[in-house]
Design brief:
5-stranded parallel beta sheet, Helicase, Ruva Protein, domain 3, Beta-Lactamase, alpha/beta, 4-stranded antiparallel beta sheet, 21 helices, about 45% helix, elongated, Rossmann fold, 4 domains
Length: about 500
């Protein structure tokens, strides 16, 4: 939307003002940080008399829109030949506001336009140089009117789309308490996305067997939660579940941790110590970050898997164990096997059942559910009433990529609970700087739309951007997107074909 406003400003020297359904101004154009494109508008609001005229005109514009059956109007201001371009914002057949483009001038309607504007600006005590600059910028050709209307219409469609998304997310928040039922969770895992439901179905089948399980996923995705779910839904649930992070130990320490040692096996070994394989006998051992183990350690792990025996450090007598192995890694094991840093035979032993955990950015529909769960837990821990994230705060969170996945989200929610104090509503200013700044920096050298050249070409670029982004947002559901964009499904399909935007289609064979 900001890009569309920039186009309107550069080509037409006019600014976009947004009104709500009651005609109240929702654009903070009086703030110093707000950038305005129209020299005429800048001069007008710089004068007390000009501001009064503008506010009076806005009231008339709003009243006119309410009375009109048209969705778009060209409405005259109180100054000769200076006009408003007005477009209604219609959501679910209701007027929720309007987009106002101002000022728009027809350059062939009044012969003495220059003198009229000069006289007006003189009353507002505008200097001579600014007056001439304003007069020049106000001249707009009649044959560009239809393009202007198209751009204003695109702005209104973007706002309605955004409004729809916010309403959908607010409804999702209201329904969270009922959604956190059994169908949206498996053991301690939470999620209603298709990918998570697929994992739940797989876990139901896997848990009843004794097969080795190999879990892959990025850091923070919840690999240990999956391992615990497999254990607690298996016949081994009454026995031990033990977990070890293989990357936290060097080879010698890991050897002692997994297999134990005999008294006197090394300096400091004052007594015999059981290893995890012995302690977890009859239960489940979770080997996290198995990709960080050395090749010699991999040989020892392979022996346990194949023979069910292991050798404690300093012992000459093997011990037996009946342990179910669940292994996990965040590394690309296939690449490691090609490089020779991970044994293929061990991989095929642990990879009987493979479970791939999606990253949080791949299941964003689960974020609200997770937030509600973490808010409930964290607020309960400190005896606070369960807090609610504001729409703006939730919007920032949903737009963030979450490289640390669920663990990072949990930490962020805990931060918000602590920093919000006694306030029930959590505002976006409490978010971590990384999340607040995400997506806010735009490379000025890489504009989304080329503002030079023909207007028709630029409009096509805007159309392509909106359709491409909309297809991704709607999961390529063209019926849903056509309603959002306010065009027919047939027209949308035609544009998708024209611009080649459906990348899911396979190219035809040569």
């Amino acid at each position: 939307m900001s890009n569309l406003k920039k186009i309107l400003g550069k080509w037409y020297s006019l600014d976009c003002i947004f009104l709500d359904e009651k005609g109240r101004v929702k654009t903070n154009f009086l703030e110093d940080s707000y950038f305005l494109y129209s020299d005429f508008f800048i001069s007008q609001i710089g004068s007390a008399e000009g501001r009064e005229n503008f506010n009076s005109d806005l009231e008339k514009v709003h009243d006119s829109l309410l009375q009109s059956e048209e969705e778009m109007l060209i409405y005259p201001s109180s100054f000769a030949n200076v006009n408003f371009v007005c477009c209604k914002l219609i959501y679910e057949n209701k007027l929720v506001g309007s987009v106002i483009g101002y000022p728009f001038v027809f350059n062939n309607k009044v012969d003495d336009l220059d003198s009229i504007i000069k006289s007006l600006l003189t009353q507002w005590k505008v200097d001579v140089i600014q007056i001439q600059k304003t007069i020049t910028s106000l001249k707009v050709s009649d044959n560009n009117l239809e393009y202007l209307k198209d751009l204003i219409s695109l702005v209104s469609q973007e706002i309605i789309t955004f409004h729809n998304e916010i309403n959908t997310r607010e409804e999702r928040i209201k329904d969270l308490s009922s959604e956190l039922g059994s169908r949206f969770r498996f053991h301690t895992m939470i999620g209603k996305s298709a990918k998570m439901k697929k994992i739940y179905r797989l876990l139901e089948k896997v848990s009843s067997s004794d097969a080795s399980v190999f879990i892959q996923g990025e850091n923070g995705t919840g690999k240990e939660l999956v391992a615990r779910a497999v254990h607690y839904f298996s016949a081994r649930k009454d026995n031990m579940f033990l977990a070890v992070n293989c990357s936290a130990f060097n080879e010698n320490l890991l050897d002692s941790e997994l297999f134990g040692y005999e008294k006197g096996a090394f300096t400091g070994a004052n007594k015999t110590k059981k290893g995890l394989f012995e302690a977890a006998d009859g239960g489940t051992l979770f080997l996290d970050e198995i990709g960080d183990t050395s090749l010699s350690m991999q040989v020892k792990l392979l022996r346990v898997l194949q023979e069910g025996t292991f050798l404690p450090v300093g012992s000459v007598t093997p011990k037996k164990t009946n342990v179910r192995i669940i292994a996990a890694t965040n590394k690309n094991i296939k690449e490691m096997m090609i490089e020779g840093s991970f044994r293929e035979d061990l991989f095929y032993r642990v990879n009987v059942i493979n479970i791939s955990i999606p990253s949080l950015r791949e299941r964003k529909e689960d974020i609200s559910l997770l937030i509600d769960h973490f808010l409930s837990v964290k607020c309960g821990e400190i005896g606070k009433v369960i807090k609610v994230l504001s729409s703006a705060c939730l919007e920032k969170i949903l737009n963030y990529s979450w490289p640390g996945n669920v663990r990072q989200l949990e930490n962020e929610v805990e931060r918000l609970v602590v920093l919000s104090g006694d306030n029930k509503i959590v505002t976006p200013d409490l978010l971590s700087p990384t999340i607040l700044e995400f997506g806010s920096k735009i490379d000025s050298d890489k504009e989304l739309v080329n503002l030079n050249g023909k207007l028709k070409d630029a409009l096509e670029e805007v159309e392509i951007l909106m359709i491409r982004e909309g297809l991704q947002r709607c999961g390529f559901n063209k019926t849903k997107l056509s309603k959002e964009l306010g065009i027919s499904r047939a027209s949308l399909i035609s544009k998708v074909e024209k611009y080649g935007l459906d990348k899911r289609k396979k190219p035809e064979a040569a």
